[in-house]
Amino acid sequence: MSDDELTPVFDRGTREHSRSRNRLRAEPMLPETAYQLVHDEALLDGNARLNLATFVTTWMDDHANRLYAETFDKNMIDKDEYPSTAAVEDHCWRILGELWNAPNVDDAVGTSTTGSSEACMLGGLAFKRRWQHARRAEGKSTEKPNLVMSSAVQVCWEKFCNYWDVEMRLVPVNAEHPVFDGSDLENYVDENTIGVVAIMGVTYTGAYEPVRDIAAKLDEIQEKTGFDIPIHVDGASGAMIAPFVQPDLEWDFRLPRVHSISTSGHKYGGVYPGLGWVVWRETKWLPEDLVMRVSYLGGDMPTFALNFSRPGAQVLLQYYLFLRLGFAGYAEMQQGSQDVAVFLSRAIGEMKPFRLISSGTDIPVFAWTMNDDYTDKWTLYDLSDRLRMRGWLIPAYPLPADLEKVIVQRIVVRADLSLDMAQKLMGDFRDEVGYLDALPAPMPDAERAPAFHH
User: Fold this and answer.
1) Using an 8 Å Cβ cutoff, are 149 and 188 in contact?
2) In terms of Cα–Cα distance, which of 247, 243, 251, 177 is closest to 214?
3) Cβ(48)–Cβ(24) under 8 Å?
4) Which domains does the chain have, with CATH numbers?
5) What is the pLDDT of residues 97-121, one digit of tens each?
């Protein structure tokens, strides 16, 4: 069948496409035909705006979209050819350093990354290298480094410890300590501990870990043992929420033990994926031998990243939002998201089947579970399936180790979920709960995999 401009697009060679997906075609295809094929593949995805499982930005305004289209060809790492984009990157991390209360932004250092996962790995690498230098200077072994964190950490930390040969020491969360708060920390740290990770916005529930309490516990440990252990704050979400919604909360560089902070520009930073940021409180906390140097504008630009060629457009989009919104605009946007989260959590918490695990008053994320013995007809997995039929993607999954028997659902409220949309969601939510409650017999007990990969 010919691929001819005069042939209607669906009568071209598209019917043969299913047999040739995994090999390169012998002949070229008209761009309109190729576009239609890829466009139709994407039709089978869910609606990103209705995906309440993801933290990742799914909407930007028309000016941002235009800027994106104008700059998607810029390579962030090519600072010689794109010196203005490199300068914008510098502006952005300095803005974040000030936002996070660095004592002297001129003595801080930071970089953009492809996401907060890469940013976390850079923070972990700086910890490991700094620890190695200190141990060698003392004539001690650099074998068996360990990193201490909550059992509820994001999977990027498991990757870091696996890839860079660091022992992962997990402090379990439980009913008494639903978040890592420093309790029992002395039993997990030793002379080989390169650092402690604190999470501003646990992905399972949206709750903050109390960084100040963790730092205070490490102060006590140092007084008793001499172990001077730094903190990296994984602020993938909360580092772009707390400064605007909870400005008095001490979690950032106001705590001297916090050496580095990471965040996702593509989450509550408001930028399309993928963009992350990491900032060190002082230049000395980023070991010099991890930094590569390139020249631009006749000067010297330090660069520290795992990836080399990567998009520069998202960095420009971040700067656009910093200029467009300012502090007041971000505060309004983040408070609006939190207001919607609290509206939804209250509405769900008032329903008989459910008990809230969190309320959306930290980051605009909350989770709930079913009350014990409410029903044997359905589970949260069934409710997730029913909502998916309406277009809403709301995952059900178990909590981490020691709480894995607790099944929860979670909603992530982003700026593009308006109160009007939230009210529509609640209408569908109540209808589906009513449908499940009216079942004459239990739903089939199909084997399920958790619908959550944070």
Assistant:
1) no
2) 251
3) no
4) 9-44 (no CATH), 65-322 (3.40.640.10), 331-437 (3.90.1150.160)
5) 999 999 999 999 999 999 999 999 9
